[in-house]
Write a structure and sequence with these properties.
Blueprint: H1 2-13, E1 19-22, E2 25-27, H2 29-36, E3 39-43, E4 47-49, H3 60-66, H4 72-81, E5 85-86, H5 87-93, E6 98-100, H6 105-118, H7 121-134, H8 139-154
Parallel strand pairs: 1-3, 2-4, 3-6
Antiparallel strand pairs: 4-5
Length: 161
C-alpha cells in the first residue's frame, strides 16, 4: 500500500507537470494513475474502471487518487458501480483533460509537452505549485498566493523576452 500511496504523492508533489496518455483500458491502479496526472489525454476508445468493489476489495486506495479530481458524488459512483467509463465520461467527470481520436493521441501528447517545454521554467513550476497549493486555500488566500507567485515569477530574468 505504501508504494501506491507514495506514487500518488509523487505525482502531486512533483514540481513539474505530469502528463499521462491513455489508450486502451485503465483499470484500478491505471485509472488512478490517469486521475493523478496533472494532464491526462485519452484516446476516444479508452476505458476507465475501478473494478475492486466487484471483487470484494476496498477501492479506497484507488479512490484517494481521484480526490480533488472528481466530486464526492462522482467518486462514490465510480467506486460502488464499478462501471466501465468511456473517455468522454471520464472527461465529463473531471479526471481526463482531453479526448482525441486514437490515431491522434501521440500528436496530442507531443503538442502539450511541446507547449510546456517552450514556456519559461519559472512559469511552468509556478503553475504546478499554484494548482497544488491553491486547492487547499480559501478563495482570498488563493488570490493572494496567485499575486505573490505572479510577482516573483515575473521578476525572473527567464520571463523577459
Amino acid at each position: 500500500r505504501d508504494t501506491v500511496f507514495n506514487c500518488y504523492g509523487a505525482f502531486r508533489q512533483s514540481p513539474v507537470p505530469v502528463v499521462a496518455a491513455v489508450q486502451g483500458r485503465a483499470l484500478g491502479f491505471g485509472c488512478a494513475i490517469a486521475a493523478c496526472a496533472d494532464i491526462t489525454i485519452a484516446s476516444a476508445d479508452a476505458v476507465f474502471q475501478m473494478p475492486e468493489f466487484d471483487a470484494n476489495i476496498m477501492p479506497t486506495i484507488a479512490m484517494s487518487a481521484l480526490l480533488g479530481k472528481v466530486n464526492a458524488k462522482q467518486l462514490m459512483y465510480i467506486a460502488y458501480s464499478t462501471a466501465k467509463l468511456g473517455a468522454a465520461d471520464a472527461q465529463r467527470l473531471g479526471f481526463v483533460s482531453e479526448v482525441v481520436p486514437a490515431m491522434e493521441l501521440d500528436a496530442a501528447i507531443d503538442r502539450i509537452t511541446a507547449q510546456i517545454l517552450k514556456a519559461p521554467q519559472p512559469a511552468v513550476l509556478a503553475i504546478k505549485e499554484f494548482a497544488r497549493a491553491a486547492s487547499e486555500m480559501n478563495i482570498a488566500g488563493a488570490i493572494e498566493y496567485a499575486r505573490s507567485l505572479h510577482a516573483v515569477v515575473n521578476s525572473s530574468s527567464e520571463m523577459r523576452p
